[in-house]
Amino acid sequence: MFTKAIVRPPAPNMIDGLTSAQLGKPDFILAIKQHREYVRALESCGLEVICLEADPEFPDSTFVEDVALLTTECAIITHPGAPSRQGEIRGMKKILGSYYDNIETVQPPGNLEAGDVMMVGTHFYIGLSERTNRQGAEQLIMHLQSHGLSGSVIELKDVLHLKTGVAYLEHNTLVACGEFLHHPAFQNFNILPIDKSESYAANCIWVNDTILVPSGFPKTREAIRKVGYHTVDIDVSEFQKVDGGLSCLSLRF
Ligand code: CIR
């Protein structure tokens, strides 16, 4: 179970965040409202939400998931592969120091964004992407192992981050689309396939047995409900415009 989440509201220049989405510029005021609803949803799942200050120096800084990996044993501060995001780790050590005794860091030339890391119990799948390189993944595996955890790599083909296309919903169940549907690493899981037309909804999140699903993807929501989960729809349309999804907006621990 998670008890806490860290979030950072978007700054006005989130509209200039990195993107390949071609969905137009986000509406900042709407993004703020959606972020508030997102926080409320986390709270309604029983989490204490720690809200950092918006950081206008970094347009993508609302996507806190990418700058740290929080486990039951340790926190690992990443080294984002996107140069414009590398400064986002500033201050992270101090923030995480309030919650963790053990804090590790990924160092260059290792790159790692934790949107590429999927936790399954004590094992962590690490996507090799344009943002996460082999050195970054190897450093992470070393840190995990030193705390009694484990990791393995998955080579990505089409997606930005591993969790753009696959999400672990506990109970040995995954939602997956595209390149992950038949990936050998995932064949021992119960896979709920995501329709290609709803691929954005593959980035949903498990929060204490409630699944937060992005609004507007009814097939995915029904597939998840059908296997017994309670779901909550959250509208994150303005974050989708800058390639962000539900998982990227918080660090849950
Ligand atoms: C980026 O390209 O870095 C941001 N615009 C979106 C980051 C999304 N993060 C994630 O999927 N974990």
Structure description:
The chain has 253 residues and is α/β, with parallel strands linked by helices. The protein has one domain (4-252): 5-stranded Propeller (L-arginine/glycine Amidinotransferase, Chain A), CATH 3.75.10.10. Helices cover 21% and strands 23% of the residues. It contains six helices and 15 strands. The strands form five sheets. It has a three-stranded mixed β-sheet, with helices on one face. Strands 3-4-5 form a three-stranded mixed β-sheet. Helix 1 links the parallel strand 1 (4-7) and strand 2 (48-51). The longest helix has 17 residues, at 28-44. It is globular. Bound molecules: citrulline. Citrulline binds next to loops. Citrulline binds at residues 17-19, 60, 63, 65-66, 82, 85, 115, 160-161, 164, 242-245, 247-248.
CATH class: Alpha Beta
How are the strands ordered across the major sheet? 2-1-15
CATH architecture: 5-stranded Propeller
CATH superfamily: L-arginine/glycine Amidinotransferase, Chain A
Stated plainly, the CATH topology is called: L-arginine/glycine Amidinotransferase, Chain A
Could you state the order of secondary-structure elements as H and E? EHEEEHEEEHEHEEEEEHEHE
Q: Biggest sheet, in brief?
A: 3 strands, mixed
